[in-house]
Design a protein that fits this description.
The complex is a heterodimer of chains A (157) and B (310). With 157 residues, chain A is mainly α. Chain B has a two-stranded antiparallel ribbon with strand order 1-2. In chain B, a hairpin with a 3-residue loop joins strand 1 and strand 2. The relative contact order of chain B is 0.22. Classes of the chains: A mainly alpha (157), B mainly alpha (310). Chains A and B meet through helix 1, helix 4 and helix 5 of A and helix 2 and helix 9 of B.
Amino acid sequence: MKDFIDKIKDILYDGTEYILMIAIIAAVALVINWRLDGLFAMNADNSDKQVALDNGSIVDDYNEYVKNTEDETPKEEETEDNEEVKETENVVINVTIPSGALPNQIANILVSKGLVESKSEFIDKVVEMGVEKKLKSGTFKIAKGSSLEEIVNIISK
Amino acid sequence: MKNIKGSLLLLLTAIIWGTAFVSQKLGMNYIEPFTFGASRFLLGALTLIPVILIFDKANSKKKGSEKSINSSFKNRDLIVGGILCGCALFFGASFQQFGIVHTTAGKAGFITALYMVLVPIIGMFMGRKTDLFTWLGVVIAVIGLYLLSIKEGFSMGKGDAIVLIGTVFWALHIIIVDRFVNKVDGVKLSCIQFLTAGTLSLIASFIAEEPKISEIIDCAGPILYSAVLSVGVAYTLQIIGQKYTNPTLASIIMSLESVFSAISGALYLKESMLAREIFGCILVFIAVIIAQINPKEIINAIKNREKAVE
């Protein structure tokens, strides 16, 4: 009986360590969850700024981006048959990729520029084409409405 | 029947470990190697905690009130062994992770499997005897590696070379585990080694890389797979499976890990191999199996069978 109580004490002793560990992890997870949007927003801001340095003022670039996303998409659909080529040629977006950027970071930049709809879409394409290690850094001119394959080809050229 | 069940569990372990090479390669699209290692090992150590609790409960039921030496973390062998294993694991896994960026998951799997051939050689330096089988295995392994990795002009692929350096540390890891595993509880040893490897990776990632939490979350899929399944689940399955299977068969089944890494690489990453590379893989696999075979054990098994027949 005494040994049994000792055993329970041991388990409790160890248990408190686990509970502490789990509590810390839970707290970290909660904080991450809570600040998740902020972290994403910060990333997007950074990549915008990098591009903006090439193009001029941040505000102009941002406005242009907002206009593009608001105006172009519906227009493109309406005039798809007649002016599709013109529309896509008109809007060329400069994308700057810092050296050493991983596919996920590149995807972040492309999503924030409105060239790619989702990050996973872009990464899946890169893996499918087997060009993970061939993506280049630098500034690229990418036409809005380019297909995923075209975008990956431009960046990995 | 129990034997078959154990073998199946070990096969599942091999499948999980083999496919983990794919998740290790995919993860490199999101974060850098040390960051990946840190999140993987720390999370893996966490998933082992419930396993430890369950095993403890089962053990205390079995032994009744008998107090065992291994019942708590306050054990010097456990701490020292765990930290040593963790250091070897850190170097092995980091080299593997850096190398896998520049090579395919399948090749990395086969080159890593070479640790089974390296273990007896390193053991030789520590005074253990080697037999003819060991050297036969080494010769076949070298030829296999030549076919698998050496390109024109006798140069080796950058990724392959880095993974090969990691293999030396995997072999050291096995030797250290071997020295401590009989003295302490296996799962607890493992938990401490993962904590150590995770902490070292974390420090390295803060020095050499810029870990961002948002990017680690983007990488959740590959990290969870290689932490929860490869570290937590597969490790437990291995321990249970090994109880019901003889050691030679167990390690041969687990060397299938390399075969599954090639299969899953081909399936999920559309990796392809040249004919000579496939031939190299086959040779490496044969070498790994030869290294596992203990002639004395086989002779004993045959003798026992003969006795049983008589």
